[in-house]
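Q: I'm building a small set of examples for a reading group on sequence design. Run inverse folding on the following structure and report the sequence directly after it, with nothing in between.
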């Protein structure tokens, strides 16, 4: 049986390895918890980027499939180079290898995203341009516009209790 041309085999193996190596690195780093949210590798969905905990969990859950995708890509690259198959056989192995890589990456990202959605989102911080960072009292200041109790609540400013801002209470429901 004739071998595929060496130039074709090298090109196909290079394409497979171009996806396999980053997948393997991302999988191993995700498994060990060494991925950074600001880096290029890892699962970067909205749910995974919500917190460091969600990012680490999403990548740890997806890691086995991501490592598997890297393994499939590398194995298919070796097969394309080593097996005595013709041009059509080399192309079929490469296409099936790429389908396996992308299929496992898609499945890993899906289960990683689902795991990240299960992590509670951190509480929102009050925003705004007013004197104490979002109490809504306006330019008149924080002196007694909502509560005259004088307790320090938002930002340590007098006039607001922590109960006035629902996001500062644990497990608070919005009013």
């Amino acid at each position: 049986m004739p071998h595929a041309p060496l130039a074709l085999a090298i090109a196909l193996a290079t394409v497979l390895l171009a996806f396999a190596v980053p997948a393997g690195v991302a999988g191993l780093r995700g498994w060990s918890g060494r991925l950074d949210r600001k880096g290029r590798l890892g699962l970067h969905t909205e749910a995974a980027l919500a917190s460091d905990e969600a990012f680490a969990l999403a990548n740890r859950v997806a890691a086995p499939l991501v490592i598997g995708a890297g393994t499939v890509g590398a194995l298919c690259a070796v097969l394309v180079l080593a097996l005595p198959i013709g041009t059509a056989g080399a192309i079929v192995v490469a296409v099936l290898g790429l389908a396996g890589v992308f299929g496992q990456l898609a499945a890993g990202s899906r289960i990683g995203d689902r795991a990240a959605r299960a992590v509670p989102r951190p509480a929102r911080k009050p925003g705004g341009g007013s004197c104490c960072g979002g109490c809504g009292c306006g330019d008149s200041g924080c002196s007694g516009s909502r509560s005259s109790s004088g307790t320090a609540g938002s930002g340590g400013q007098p006039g607001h209790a922590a109960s006035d801002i629902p996001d500062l209470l644990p497990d608070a429901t919005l009013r």
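DSSP finds three helices and no strands in the chain.
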